[in-house]
TrEMBL record:
This is VirB5. Gene3D superfamilies: Type IV secretion system, VirB5-domain. Residues 74-83 have a biased composition (Polar residues). Residues 52-83 are annotated as: Disordered. InterPro entries: T4SS_VirB5-domain.
């Protein structure tokens, strides 16, 4: 979807030089701006997903570290597994 948006934006930008009427130019500018906004939204969603994934990994690592610490300190007899 991202490459499709880039292609659409490039196409619209190229078309801006070809149109003849002010109305056509305005319409294309609006469509071009919309494509750019959609690209930015996609980038933000991807960045948010990446941050969420990193946070989940951090929490899992902390949980594993706590389980190992508990096992080593004798707080639990259950040996942690990291499957």
């Amino acid at each position: 979807a991202s490459t499709e948006r880039v292609k659409n934006a490039e196409f619209l930008r190229a078309r801006l030089n070809e149109v003849t009427t002010p109305q056509q130019k305005e319409d294309l500018q609006l469509r071009y701006q919309q494509e750019l906004i959609e690209q930015q939204n996609q980038q933000m969603r991807l960045a948010n997903m990446q941050m969420l994934q990193q946070q989940q990994e951090k929490m899992e690592n902390e949980k594993r570290a706590q389980a190992f610490s508990d096992y080593m300190n004798g707080k639990t007899s259950v040996r942690p597994s990291y499957d």
